[in-house]
Design a protein that fits this description.
The complex is a heterodimer of chains A (about 180) and B (about 1000). Chain A is globular. Chain A has one domain: Glutathione S-transferase Yfyf (Class Pi), Chain A, domain 2 (Up-down Bundle). In chain A, strands 1-2-3 form a three-stranded antiparallel β-sheet, with helices on one face. Chain A is mainly α and about 180 residues long. Chain B is α/β, with parallel strands linked by helices and about 1000 residues long. Among the domains of chain B are: about 210 residues, Glutathione S-transferase Yfyf (Class Pi), Chain A, domain 2, CATH 1.20.1050.130; about 170 residues, Isoleucyl-tRNA Synthetase, Domain 1 (Orthogonal Bundle); about 60 residues; about 70 residues, Helix Hairpins (Orthogonal Bundle). In chain B, helix 14 crosses helix 18. The longest helix of chain B has about 30 residues. The chains are: A mainly alpha (about 180), B alpha/beta (about 1000). Chain B: InterPro entries: aa-tRNA-synth_I_CS (IPR001412), Anticodon_Met (IPR041872), Glutathione-S-Trfase_C-like (IPR010987), Glutathione-S-Trfase_C_sf (IPR036282), GST_C (IPR004046), MARS_N (IPR041598), Met-tRNA_ligase_1 (IPR023458), Met-tRNA_synth (IPR014758).
Chain lengths: ~180, ~1000
């Protein structure tokens, strides 16, 4: 979730050295990096600092304009406030799945039409929840599943983890083909 | 720009201040997220910019509207949104969401603010930034800082910001007093911010900076409530609750007929079944009786059908004998649970046959019966028609496709299925594919009854539970179809129709009439209940789990409407959701879960079970049975809350007032308590009138909680040692508490009848009727009333005991993991734990986080060590027995017999595999040894007259050992030869050494020189 491991994964995606990542005394994730050992606290603020240092496509996308930057930030904050903690709550997680499914009905990425840090943050925050879905559930959240599957197939994102299965072909003899 | 927000949302203030700070103009629009117009809004407040961009994160908005003010500002912005706001939401929450842990967390956060203002006048340096605004706007509503101590810098900062003209301007538009953190609940569809766990900070306790501002409930009591409480609290001799021999409905009175879904006779009921129908019905019936309504509670076992026939075949009994056997089982279980049926009957009675056949003739006469030829599934292997429940296959409903759908209903989509429509059907017994055969069957024409049914549902569904309405509506929406009411079986009620004599009625037509026939067994006047005369109203409450709803809301009412003879139709369908067992399903076959008879074996009193099940009743949604929850509720609610209050009140009365209830001279404090009690009493009555049993318990416990709080603040034990005035005051307090204890006994009675009776005994009082029209506490025990001997009502459930039960009923899995001595599994556990610890240590410095995990690891390592020690020891013990030839065989046989007895005894005394498995292993090991020893003994005679006898030594030589060594030597020799052939000397040399050592050992044992030496000797001769 929005913790040390996620920051490290995203740093890896962006091709940036994460430096030392840990929880501070407030249990907030903190990054200490660079020669001056400067420290940054807070998941969203850390992700911004990573984007500053990265030359990757995702990082460049995330800084495309002030509008994009603001939207990327709000989704990162959303993943901290709602997605990560809400995934563990039966009711909140259902609403989250429905909301994201609705969002992705009309777009391929959260912000703009390119991959940004917003997608990464939500992807890692919602990973466990999506993993827990049954094939029928995944089919019910078709748009979300499509977005998720698209992201997980990028090697910089799955980082060697086994891919989640979105195939529904074995479910019904009469449903011919997959939805992805 | 427009800010969309909801009323009272403090984050709306934040946005307004930020926008003003950025010197922009903005309109505020209050919206409701439930309004379909705003379905695209995710979180409130949302700011819609003039360029069409919508943003809902105040931090993102601040960053967008304002220039970059540095990393420090950004950190504070995130801090205020992700730490401060959730902590405030938790702290300000009311009711069941209130969180006592929020205050210490908030203290630490406030301390951090105060500390950081030490080095600079504003949070992010010398100038006011968005960070200050974000934090300020969160602290301002509800006066978080009011009365706070030792935060002077923070107060100073707060004051400086408040006087700023731009802030004043905003506050004129949005007064602080209108804001509340509870408004966040309506700010998104996630129920606010309560899903965010409070972070337990590892910094030292910040002390008490903020005052605990939670208003006490006492502040909310109005004068009217006090007056009402005072007026009602008088003594009137209680009416006796009269119990008539036969309860019959009476005109002009409230008549309540209660049924509980008929349990199928072959199934041993589990806790879910019990709370789903019989227990719920009983609690409601007990309430209804004590509220003075004419109440009849009817239930019984449903006994006809194929399942019984099969069971009978399997147990080599007749169906009748099977039913007799299982009926007693049900009856015993319900009796143990204290279910007070007025009549607990069965469907296999003459009354049932008469009533069902009569009803059929009526339905036939009314023209609702159709004859159709039906294709039925015939299993050729089992040579019989398959009843719906004996076919499984793939669900035919589009979009479902569940592979294990039953022949009557799909467990996955819940829709009804015709067995013949299943895709790839299979016989549940033999798994082979059945074939279709046709035969004539009778159908009830539900479509013909549909209009009447719809009218009736529109009128009646007001009193049904939500799920019952939804399920019924779904059925009606899909349209009714004719339903088959006959079956080709023997065990059932014969169909009284020409050509159908060999068929019986199907459960849908048969079982519901069981309610009527059982009432007939109870009284000849059963028609007064089921076909009441005009002017007498009977309310029918039917309790069931949700899977039974269609039979009670659609099928049976249709039949009764078709008959059209003024039958009592259900007015209240009380359907529960499902109860899970520790987040899984109950499963008899896997031994998971607590079944009716198990509950008895646990030694936990039936009343505690009743209380727990009622408080975990799956009312609005599925709920789970959990052992820890059971223990927690028993210990915290029954023992520490209810039991504690009642016992304290009575013991004070006994010890200080000679067991005589003192006079109550009520002061303001006492009247406030009474007013609060009256509130809960009203809640209790309202809940139980609607059979909301779970809420009823909540109100009941709230009363004793008020009582405990009252005693704690009044401290009668102090007053008793004081002046005469103080002693009179103490008398009032004790008198009042004793009276509340008596009220509690009355309220407790429906849930825990045995406990309530004990309590009435201790109070020396009788049960008094509840006044549902005027739910106010009265003086039940007048001054001078002598009470009995108080004693504790409840016992503590220890964690160790609960853990034991948990593993006992948790299925095999749990038991296996806990079994000691399983070194391999332990090793794996140690490894996993070590990985976890490494990860934790890497991610945080906080010792508090990883220390417990480290402790767990050390513990596991210790266990592993012990297990390793134990394993060789166990197999070593019997070893000495084998050191001596023939005797060892006898010894072994004896040891095996002893061990066998031990195992049998253990198995008899406990089901716990973990206990007896190690002993069984020892037994098996012994048997193996015996086998080896016997073989060796047989081989020995051949081995003894070997060509190289050593006469002196033979007598004491153990032939088994010799044989074993010889075998070993042969093996080792073979190994050496192979190795030597391969060449490498480094490899074979040590093996040769081993060989020589073995040979020497043999020589020492037999007294004969080793093979090599022997040859040399011969040559010398």
């Amino acid at each position: 979730m929005c913790d040390v491991a996620t920051v490290q994964k995203i740093a890896h995606c962006l091709g940036v050295n994460p430096g030392k990542v840990q929880l501070n005394e407030e249990q907030v994730v903190t990054r200490i990096s660079g020669q001056k050992k400067s420290s940054v606290a807070g998941f969203a603020t850390i992700l911004e600092s990573l984007a500053q240092e990265s030359k990757s496509e995702t990082a460049q996308n995330s800084k495309a304009s002030r509008e994009v930057e603001a939207q990327v930030y709000q989704w990162i904050e959303f993943s901290v406030l709602y997605v990560a903690p809400g995934s563990k709550d039966k009711h909140v997680s259902k609403q989250l799945l429905a909301d994201f499914n609705k969002l992705f009905a009309s777009k391929s990425y959260l912000v703009g039409h390119f991959i940004t840090l917003a997608d990464l943050a939500v992807y890692y925050a919602i990973y466990d929840l999506v993993k827990s879905l049954s094939p029928v559930d995944k089919e019910a959240y078709l748009n979300l599943s499509r977005w998720f599957d698209h992201l997980q197939n990028r090697p910089d994102i799955h980082q060697g983890e086994p891919l989640l299965n979105f195939t529904t072909i074995y479910l019904h003899g009469w449903a011919t083909g997959t939805h992805i | 720009m427009i800010i969309y927000t909801n009323e009272g949302n403090p984050l709306g203030l934040q946005l307004l201040m930020l926008v003003k700070h950025a010197k922009r103009q903005v309109q505020v629009q209050l919206v409701n997220l439930n309004d379909p117009k705003y379905k695209d809004l995710l979180v409130l407040p949302t700011l819609q910019l003039d360029n069409g961009l919508s943003l809902f994160s105040p931090a993102a908005i601040a960053k967008y509207l304002l220039v970059d003010e540095g990393k420090q500002r950004d950190e504070w912005l995130e801090w205020s949104a992700t730490l401060l706001a959730p902590a405030l939401a938790h702290h300000m929450a009311v009711g069941h969401k209130a969180d006592a842990n929020a205050l210490p967390v908030l203290n630490a956060l406030v301390k951090k603010l105060d500390d950081s203002l030490q080095s600079s006048p504003f949070l992010a340096g010398d100038k006011l930034t968005a960070a200050d605004i974000a934090v300020w706007s969160l602290l301002a509503p509800e006066g978080t800082l009011k009365g706070a101590q030792n935060v002077d810098r923070l107060r100073d900062w707060y004051g400086r910001i408040k006087v700023l003209p731009e802030v004043q301007e905003v506050l004129a538009e949005q007064p602080l007093k209108d804001l509340s953190f509870n408004a966040l609940q309506q700010s998104n569809r996630y129920g606010g911010l309560y899903h965010i766990p409070l972070k337990r900070l590892s910094v030292a306790d910040a002390g008490k900076l903020l005052v605990d501002t939670t208003p006490t409930v006492a502040d909310t009591v109005t004068d009217d409530e006090i007056k009402a409480a005072q007026a009602a609290f008088t003594y009137t001799a209680p009416k006796e609750i009269k119990e008539e021999r036969t309860v019959l409905p009476k005109a002009g009175q409230r008549n309540v007929l209660i049924t509980s879904a008929l349990p199928y006779v072959n199934n041993v009921p589990h806790l879910g079944n019990i709370i789903g129908c019989v227990l719920s019905a009983d609690i409601f019936a007990r309430y209804s009786r004590s509220a003075g309504y004419n109440t009849l509670l009817i239930c019984g076992t449903d006994e006809y059908g194929t399942a019984t026939e099969n069971k009978a075949l399997a147990e080599k009994l007749t169906p009748r004998e099977i039913c007799d056997k299982y009926f007693e089982l049900h009856n015993g279980i319900y009796r143990w649970f204290g279910i007070g049926f007025d009549y607990f009957g069965r469907t296999t009675t003459q009354e049932q046959t008469d009533i069902v056949q009569e009803a059929f003739k009526d339905v036939l006469k009314a023209g609702y019966i159709i004859t159709e030829s039906v294709e039925q599934l015939l299993c050729q292997k089992c040579d019989r028609f398959l009843a719906d429940r004996f076919v499984e296959g793939t669900c035919p409903h589009p979009g479902c496709g569940y592979e294990d759908a039953r022949g009557d209903q799909c467990d996955k989509c819940g829709k009804l299925v015709n067995a013949t429509e299943l895709i790839r059907p299979r016989c549940k017994v033999c798994n082979s594919a059945p074939v279709l055969r046709s035969s004539d069957q009778l159908f009830i024409d539900l479509p013909k009854a549909e209009p009447y049914l719809k009218d009736w549902v529109d009128k009646s569904e007001g009193g049904w539970t939500h799920n019952a309405k939804v399920i019924t509506r779904a059925w009606l929406k899909e349209g009714l179809k004719p339903r088959c009411i006959t079956r080709d079986l023997k065990w059932g009620i014969p169909v009284p129709h020409p050509g159908f004599e060999k068929k019986v009625f199907y459960v849908w037509f048969d079982a519901p009439f069981g309610y009527v026939s059982m009432t007939k067994r109870y009284t000849k006047e059963y028609q007064q209940w089921w076909q009441p005369v005009k002017g007498t109203d009977v309310e029918l409450f039917q309790f069931m789990a949700k899977d039974n709803v269609p039979f009670h809301s659609v099928v049976w009412p249709s039949v009764l409407l078709a008959i059209n003879k003024g039958h009592t139709l259900v007015s209240h369908i009380m359907a529960t959701e499902y109860l899970n067992y520790e987040d899984g399903k109950f499963s008899k076959s896997r031994g998971i879960g607590v079944f009716g008879n198990d509950a008895q074996e646990t030694g936990i009193p039936a009343d505690v079970w009743r209380f727990y099940l009622a408080s975990a009743r799956p009312e609005g949604q599925d709920s789970s049975f959990s052992w820890n929850d059971l223990a927690a509720r028993n210990n915290s609610e029954l023992l520490n809350n209810l039991g504690n209050f009642v016992n304290r009140a009575l013991v004070f009365c006994e010890k200080n007032f000679n067991s005589t209830v003192p006079e109550v001279v009520a002061t303001q404090d006492d009247l406030i308590l009474l007013a609060l009690v009256n509130r809960e009493l009203r809640g209790y009555i309202n809940s139980l009138e609607k059979a909301k049993l779970r809420d009823g318990i909540r109100h009941l416990l709230a009363i004793s909680r008020h009582g405990n709080g009252y005693m704690q603040t009044q401290q009668p034990w102090v007053l008793l040692k004081g002046s005469a005035d103080q002693k009179t005051r103490a008398a009032t307090i004790i008198g009042l508490c004793a009276n509340i204890a008596c009220l509690l006994a009355n309220l407790l009675f429906p849930y825990m009848p045995a406990t309530a009776r004990t309590l009435f005994g201790q109070l020396n009082a009788k049960q008094t009727p509840l006044n549902a029209d005027k739910p106010l506490a009265t003086l039940l025990l007048p001054a001078g009333h002598k009470i009995g001997k108080p004693a504790p009502l409840f016992a503590k459930l220890e964690q160790s005991f609960i853990d034991e039960l948990k593993s006992k009923y948790g299925g095999d899995q749990v038991a296996a993991v806990q079994s000691p001595g399983n070194a391999a599994e332990l090793e794996k556990a140690v490894q996993d734990q070590a990985d976890k610890v490494r990860q934790l240590k890497a991610s945080t410095k906080d010792k508090a986080v990883w220390q417990p995990e480290v402790n767990k690891l050390l513990d596991l390592k210790k266990q592993l060590e012990e297990a390793k020690k134990a394993t060789p020891a166990a197999s070593a013990t019997p070893a000495p027995a084998s050191s001596n030839g023939k005797q060892s065989v006898q010894d072994l046989e004896k040891a095996i017999q002893e061990q066998g007895d031990k195992v049998r005894k253990l198995k008899g005394s406990t089901k716990d595999k973990a206990v007896w498995q190690p002993e069984v292993n020892v037994l098996l090991e012994l048997k193996k040894q015996l086998e080896a020893a016997q073989k060796a003994a047989k081989a020995a005679p051949a081995a003894v007259p070997a060509p190289t006898p050593a006469p002196a030594a033979t007598s004491s030589v153990d032939p088994t050992q010799v044989k074993a060594l010889e075998d070993k030597i042969a093996q080792q020799g073979e190994k050496v030869r192979t190795l030597k052939a391969a060449g490498n000397a480094d490899v074979w040399k040590p093996e040769v050494a081993t060989l020589l050592a073995l040979k020497n050992e043999l020589a020492a044992l037999t007294g004969a020189p080793a093979a090599g030496g022997q040859n040399k000797g011969k040559k010398k001769k």
